[in-house]
Amino acid sequence: MVSLAVTGGDSPEARGPVACQGTLEGWWGERAVHSVVFMMDDTNEEPKGATRRSALRGLGLAAGGMALATGIGASQAAAAPRRGAVTYVLVHGTHSAGAFWMPVARELGLRGHRVIMVDQPWHGAEAFVAGSYQRQDLAAMAVEPSPLKGLGLDDYEARVTGIVRQAARNGPVVLVGHSLGGVSVSRVADAVPHLLQHICYMAAFCPSRVLPTADACTAAPENANAVSPVELTVGDPDRLGVLRLNFRTGVSGELALLKEMICADYPDADFRRTLAGMQTDEPVAAYAGRAVGRADTWGRVPRTYLRFGRDRTIATALQDRMIAEADAATPGNRFRVRDFPEASHVGPLDPTPVADALDALAGQGAG
Question: Residue 133 in contact with residue 95, Cβ under 8 Å?
Answer without folding.
Answer: no
